[in-house]
Amino acid sequence: MTSSPPQPASGIDAAGTDPRKDSLIEYPCLFPVKVMGAKTDEFLPQMIALALRHDPFLDAATIAQRDSSGGKYISLTITITATSREQLDNFYRALTSHPLVKYAL
After folding, report:
1. For the domain bounded by 24-104, which CATH number is listed?
2. Closest Cα partner for 49 from 78, 22, 23?
3. Which is nearest to 55 in space by CA: 36, 34, 81?
4. What CA–CA distances, in Å, run from 67 to 26, 35, 43, 50?
5. Which of 3, 30, 44, 53 is the most exposed place for a label (fewest CB within 10 A)?
6. pLDDT digit string (tens) for 3-42?
7. How crowded is residue 52: how many other Cβ atoms within 10 Å of its Cβ?
């Protein structure tokens, strides 16, 4: 009887490394992202829709909002449940490429 080679442990890739060790972040975790843009009627709903594509369990009621001192801009703190570096990278790319977004931190 032949035995099959041992299977990698959970989180270990085919090369035998754990990509989760490449980050200082321990997944899953709550991860706040600050996004700023012009204060318009569509900014908040579009940011909620975008965030939900990356974290379908996001509770939009937890998004913190703050207007700039002049009232021209708004900043949102969107706290998503981060499950991987790839998810965070994709979320940041989506935010920074959105035409209403000025900055994402």
Report:
1. 3.30.70.260
2. 78
3. 81
4. 32, 12, 12, 20
5. 3
6. 444 444 455 656 555 555 566 889 999 999 999 999 999 9
7. 13
pLDDT at 84: 95
Is residue 76 a contact partner of residue 65, using CB atoms and an 8 Å limit? Answer: yes
- Which amino acid is residue 40, in one-letter code? T
Residues 59-102 have pLDDT tens digits of 999 999 999 999 999 999 999 999 999 999 999 999 999 999 99
**Are 94 and 53 a contacting pair, CB within 8 Å?**
yes
Three-class secondary structure of residue 93 per DSSP: helix
Helix axes 85-97, 43-54, angle to 10 degrees: 160
Are 22 and 85 within 8 A, CB to CB?
Answer: yes
**DSSP codes of every residue in 66-84:** EE-TTSSEEEEEEEEEE--
